[in-house]
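Hi everyone,

Forwarding the result from last night's run.
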Amino acid sequence: MSDEHEGLEVVEFSDVEELRNWLTTAGTAHPGVWVRLRRASSSVPSITFRDLLVEGIAHGWSESTRHGCDDDSYLQKFTPRRSRGTASQRNLGIARELDSQGRLTEEGRRALDL
C-alpha cells in the first residue's frame, strides 16, 4: 500500500495512546488523513473504529468515508471537523461524556460549539 490515498497521507496507530499523541502533536498540522484500521480478525495491533470516533470527537476531528483496502484492513477518512452544529446526537452524547471525564479538549469543544 502506498503512503497516500486520494491525496491524503495514510497513517496507522497500534493503540489509542499513539493516536492521542498524534492528535495533540502532528495532527494539528494536517488537513486530514486516511487511517488504516485492522479488521477484528487481524493479528496486527490496531485501534478500533470506536477508538478513532471517540478520540476524534475529543480533539475536534471527524471520521467519514470508508474504503476497503485488503482482507486485513480498511481505510477510514479522518479530518478536522469543519462545520459547527452538524454533530449527530450520538457524537454529542460522546462529547458530553468526554467532557464529564475531563477528556474533551478545547479543539473538540470549539469544533462542536460547546
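The mean pLDDT is 91.

Cheers,
N.
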